[in-house]
């Protein structure tokens, strides 16, 4: 062993330790993610925290009273108009996500199991409509479902009906149809991903052990694709509860949702604390309902086994 | 010990939290040596190799390359080059561009660069393939490109991280031969990481066997196979029959032990041998036991019966039960005389050479 | 095999076809009616015309909105892709404490009702005394686009074999040189794909632009304003058709790039 270079090490202990940390995964990873993280902190976490803070304050004309109060929440939860809006919003988002997931599952299954070499093309075709302007798609549904719209005039010119059907547009059903259309790809993608992850030999094993195709599906494929179903549910349900454009354009009086009320508080109504409380309540309620749904789904799947 | 260490590793440790990937490892590797780091997965061999390459920074200790303290030196400033386990061929470059990758930094004139690339490709027998795309290469060709790309840099040390594990058996054996002659031709230090004991035995000048972040033994292939220091090393390098024995006498260069059926055996005393309570383990390789046919006699014989038999083509592995031994003995017999036809339960006689026994040290505090 | 499948699930292909019809019908209707020679969207079609497209050209307010959308789209796609690259690289390449919460926060806007993101940004902008402008739209849309940019990039980077970079360092290249000569060329398609996807999202995004744009409307905000007037519908249909066409082209380009990225990174694994 040579003793020549040893002299340099004792004095260099501290920088060496520091050098070791600077070159560590930890330091590099944190440095790398920090710009994005800081951006998200400044423009997502801070604003949302501010909303939460505002929901406990009061507004007197242009002044903000920063003393703590639950008055906004009392108003949000007890006033019939808001209560109805909450119930309808939750109901519509629940229906939308259930229908979207239910209708999309077979398509995701089809692409995953029978898509062959063109799986990616199928997926791409599914996603295209969902990437085009949301506003334009909602507008298009208005054109289809309207009183003088495509469906009514089409059916009339085909001689199937004499009078335009008025129940197509401006109600909750129209909202649900439009939202299901908007979010289809968001449901298919996570389900598809979780189906893709399933080892095909597991299904063969189930068949080998005596299950028919349906039972093998219920006992193996479905439970294993559950994570995808759950995230599809969440990814559709949570954003749709606060949807603004769809109820505004195709919802009419019976299809108004909570976002309209929130927007009003930041526009003409100009009561930020109430708007904030409505926003927070929306988030909390939708989280609770979503959690309940996820739990219920898990229970059902456990039963099947 | 090598006369001039090319790599010297001094008390190197690497902790991941409380997990010790390397635990106070010291080692010297000579210039021009073909050195192997051998051990099961998770033994720290790859961590040690990556510390030498500069991809992993030890928690403590010092690494010198050709006398230069290099522990914190970044990988791009070390005179080492690496052949990666999956070869890491740049997918967007062709073969020639892959090989020339490192040369671009040296700002050679174009003719010189071309010459060096061509020489390197010749060396690995890929002459004329420089316009081939990366994804058009077979596994063996990818490995050769990786070798050429590293060797063209004229490193002092070439590091090989399980370079043959992705190849099928036949190609692997062919590449072993080539790797060995390549090393002799270029004359630089090769450090090979492998979990395949035969590969290590066939290729290396010396081998370090590692377990649990520590080095269990460093020696030449022959010595490590014939004189393993511990039971674990012996086990990792192939089959071994272990016997419990009692120490009867001790001299400075030899010891005598008493075994159940093999009688008193005199053994060479290993370096630093210190029995704890008079009980020791001795071992003998299965191929050092030999069947005796008909009325053939041998100075040292034992009787037993065939308990199990497995046919391996050129040889047969036999399990022989011997009265008075806790474990049956395994042995390997060529099929020239019909060992593959021995019926189960047949009584046999076997011969052994007491010289073939080795005394095995207890694992000093390391975990089994 | 085919017969077996058909016997097993006779209705599935039909179902999938109907599902696709449901997905595409609304999108295809807009272009159809944009060439229809009538001010209303009724069947049967009245006749072919391109006058609605011609009417778009003289509309200065519309052209201004298009210019705004372009500015916003370019800025948003650049910023969110750069931030996406940082985050995607951090989570695919390194392991560090707080990785999960950090990723969770960055991806959170995907799991929030958009109106709440919009409202909270509006509050903070006004609270800080800033004017609503295209800048605020850009800031807001970037928050919304990062998750998409990140998922495109993460899948691009994940296939990226870490030992490629190590090989580059090992051959004497510096960190910056390695990024330029190895990382960038190999993941370039994923980056282009991210740019295209985020540009498309920004181009089509309405809620944040609606809340944050002030007096400078983007195209969707302009369209929203036009929807109140039934007479303007054909012009909006023409504009909408053009926007859909642009989106489809951009997305197709993004998909082609993404596949190229996939092929490139998949060339590496062991034989």
Which characteristics define this entry?
heterotrimer; A: about 300 residues; mainly alpha; MetI-like fold; 2 domains; two-stranded antiparallel ribbon; 15 helices; 2 strands; globular; B: about 375 residues; alpha+beta; Rossmann fold; OB fold (Dihydrolipoamide Acetyltransferase, E2P); six-stranded mixed sheet; five-stranded antiparallel sheet; 8 helices
Describe this structure as you would to a colleague.
The complex is a heterotrimer of chains A (305), B (368) and C (271). Chain A has 305 residues and is mainly α. Chain A has two domains: 5-40, no CATH class; 76-304, MetI-like fold (Orthogonal Bundle), CATH 1.10.3720. Chain A is 76% helix and 2% strand. Chain A contains 15 helices and two strands. Chain A has helices at 8-11, 13-22, 25-54, 71-78, 80-114, 119-131, 134-145, 150-157, 172-197, 200-208, 213-224, 226-241, 245-251, 258-266, 272-304, and strands at residues 58-60, 63-65. Chain A has a two-stranded antiparallel ribbon with strand order 1-2. The longest helix of chain A is centred in the N-terminal third of the chain and has 35 residues, at 80-114. Mean pLDDT of chain A is 84; it is low at 1-15. The model of chain B has no long low-confidence stretch (mean pLDDT 89). Chain B is 21% helix and 35% strand. Chain B has two domains: 5-231, Rossmann fold (3-Layer(aba) Sandwich), CATH 3.40.50; 239-360, RNA polymerase II/Efflux pump adaptor protein, barrel-sandwich hybrid domain (OB fold (Dihydrolipoamide Acetyltransferase, E2P), Beta Barrel). Chain B is α+β, with helices and mostly antiparallel strands and 368 residues long. Chain B has eight helices and 20 strands. In chain B, the strands form four sheets. Chain B has a six-stranded mixed sheet, with helices on both faces. In chain B, strands 13-12-11-14-20 form a five-stranded antiparallel sheet, with no helix packed on it. Chain B has a five-stranded antiparallel sheet with strand order 15-19-16-17-18, with no helix packed on it. In chain B, strand 12 (254-259) and strand 13 form a beta hairpin. Chain C is an all-alpha fold. Chain C has one domain (61-266): MetI-like (MetI-like fold, Orthogonal Bundle), CATH 1.10.3720. Chain C has helices spanning 2-8, 12-34, 51-57, 60-93, 99-107, 114-127, 134-158, 162-170, 175-204, 207-212, 219-226, 233-266. Chain C is globular, with a radius of gyration of 23 Å. At the A-B interface, helix 2 of A face strand 1 and strand 5 of B.
């Amino acid at each position: 062993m040579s003793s020549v270079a040893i002299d340099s090490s004792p004095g260099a202990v501290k920088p060496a330790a520091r050098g070791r940390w600077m070159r560590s995964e930890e330091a590099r990873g944190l440095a790398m993610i920090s710009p994005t993280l800081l951006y998200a902190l400044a423009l997502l976490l801070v604003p949302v925290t501010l909303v939460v803070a505002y929901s406990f304050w009061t507004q007197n004309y242009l002044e903000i009273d920063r003393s703590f109060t639950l008055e906004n929440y009392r108003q949000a939860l007890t006033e019939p108009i808001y209560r109805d809006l909450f119930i309808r919003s939750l109901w519509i988002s629940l229906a939308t996500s259930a229908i979207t997931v239910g209708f999309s599952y077979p398509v995701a299954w089809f692409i995953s199991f029978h898509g062959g070499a063109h799986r990616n093309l199928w997926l791409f075709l599914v996603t295209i409509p969902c990437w085009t302007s949301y506003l334009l798609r909602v507008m298009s549904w208005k054109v289809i479902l309207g009183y003088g719209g495509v469906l009514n005039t089409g059916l009339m010119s085909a001689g199937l009906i004499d009078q335009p059907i008025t129940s197509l547009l401006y109600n909750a059903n129209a909202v649900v149809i439009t939202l299901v259309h908007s979010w289809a790809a968001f449901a298919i993608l996570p389900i598809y991903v979780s189906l893709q992850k399933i080892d095909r030999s597991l299904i063969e094993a189930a068949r080998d052990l005596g299950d028919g195709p349906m039972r093998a599906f219920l006992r193996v494929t479905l439970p294993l694709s559950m994570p995808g179903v759950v995230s599809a549910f969440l990814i559709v349900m949570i954003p749709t509860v606060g949807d603004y454009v769809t109820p505004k354009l195709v919802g009419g009086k019976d299809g108004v949702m909570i976002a309209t009320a929130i927007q009003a508080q930041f526009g003409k109504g100009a009561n930020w604390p109430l708007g904030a409380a409505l926003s927070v309540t929306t988030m909390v309620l939708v989280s609770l309902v979503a959690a309940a749904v996820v739990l219920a789904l898990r229970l059902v799947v456990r039963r099947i086994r | 010990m090598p006369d001039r260490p090319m790599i010297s590793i001094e008390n190197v440790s690497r902790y991941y939290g409380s997990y010790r990937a390397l635990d106070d490892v010291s080692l010297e590797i000579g210039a021009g040596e073909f050195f192997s780091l051998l051990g099961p997965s998770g033994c720290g061999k790859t961590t040690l190799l990556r510390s030498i390459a500069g991809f992993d920074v030890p928690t403590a200790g010092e690494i010198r390359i050709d006398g230069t303290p290099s522990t914190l030196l970044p990988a791009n400033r070390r005179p080492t080059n690496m052949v990666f386990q999956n070869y890491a061929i740049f997918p967007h470059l062709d073969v020639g561009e892959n090989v020339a990758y490192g040369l671009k930094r040296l700002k050679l004139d174009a003719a010189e660069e071309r010459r060096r690339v061509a020489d390197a490709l010749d060396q690995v027998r890929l002459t004329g393939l420089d316009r081939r795309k990366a994804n058009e290469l077979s596994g063996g060709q990818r490995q050769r490109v990786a070798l050429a790309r590293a060797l063209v840099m004229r490193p002092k040390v070439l590091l090989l991280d399980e370079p043959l594990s992705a190849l099928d058996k036949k190609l692997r054996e062919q590449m072993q031969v080539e790797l060995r002659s390549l090393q002799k031709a270029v004359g630089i230090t090769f450090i090979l990481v492998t979990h395949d004991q035969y590969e290590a035995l066939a290729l290396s000048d010396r081998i370090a066997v590692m377990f649990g972040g520590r080095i269990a033994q460093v020696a030449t292939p022959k010595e490590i196979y014939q004189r393993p220091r511990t039971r674990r090393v012996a086990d990792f390098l192939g089959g071994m029959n272990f016997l419990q024995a009692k120490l009867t006498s001790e001299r400075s260069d030899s010891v005598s032990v008493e075994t159940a059926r093999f009688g008193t055996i005199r053994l060479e005393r290993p370096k630093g041998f210190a029995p704890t309570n008079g009980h020791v383990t001795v071992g003998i390789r299965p191929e050092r036991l030999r069947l005796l046919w008909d009325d053939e006699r041998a100075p040292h014989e034992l009787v037993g019966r065939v308990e199990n038999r497995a046919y391996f083509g050129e040889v047969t592995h036999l399990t022989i039960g011997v009265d008075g031994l806790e474990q049956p003995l395994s042995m390997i017999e060529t099929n020239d005389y019909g060992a593959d036809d021995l019926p189960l339960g047949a009584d046999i006689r076997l011969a052994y050479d007491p010289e073939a026994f080795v005394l095995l040290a207890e694992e000093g505090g390391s975990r089994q | 095999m085919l017969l077996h499948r058909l016997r097993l699930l006779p209705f599935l292909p039909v179902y999938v076809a109907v599902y696709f019809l449901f997905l595409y019908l609304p999108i295809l209707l807009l272009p159809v009616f944009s060439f229809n020679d009538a001010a209303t969207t009724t069947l049967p079609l009245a006749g072919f015309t391109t006058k609605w497209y011609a009417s778009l050209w003289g509309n200065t307010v519309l052209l201004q909105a298009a210019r705004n959308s372009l500015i916003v789209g370019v800025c948003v796609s650049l910023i969110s892709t750069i931030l996406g690259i940082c985050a995607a690289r951090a989570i695919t390449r390194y392991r560090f404490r707080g990785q999960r919460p950090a990723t969770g926060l960055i991806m959170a806007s995907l799991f929030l009702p958009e109106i709440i993101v919009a409202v909270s940004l509006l509050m903070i902008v006004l609270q800080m005394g800033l004017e609503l402008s295209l800048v605020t739209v850009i800031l807001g849309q970037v928050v919304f686009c990062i998750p998409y940019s990140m998922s495109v990039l993460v899948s691009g980077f994940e296939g990226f074999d870490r030992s490629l970079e190590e090989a580059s360092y090992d051959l004497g290249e510096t960190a910056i040189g390695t990024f330029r000569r190895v990382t960038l060329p190999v993941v370039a398609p994923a980056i282009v794909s991210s740019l295209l996807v985020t540009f498309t999202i920004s181009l089509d995004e309405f809620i944040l632009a609606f809340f944050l744009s002030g007096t400078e409307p983007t195209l969707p905000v302009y369209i929203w304003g036009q929807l109140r007037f039934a007479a303007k519908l054909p012009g909006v249909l023409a504009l909408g058709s053009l926007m859909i066409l642009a989106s489809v082209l951009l997305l197709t380009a993004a998909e082609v790039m993404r596949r190229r990225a996939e092929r490139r990174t998949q060339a590496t694994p062991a034989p």
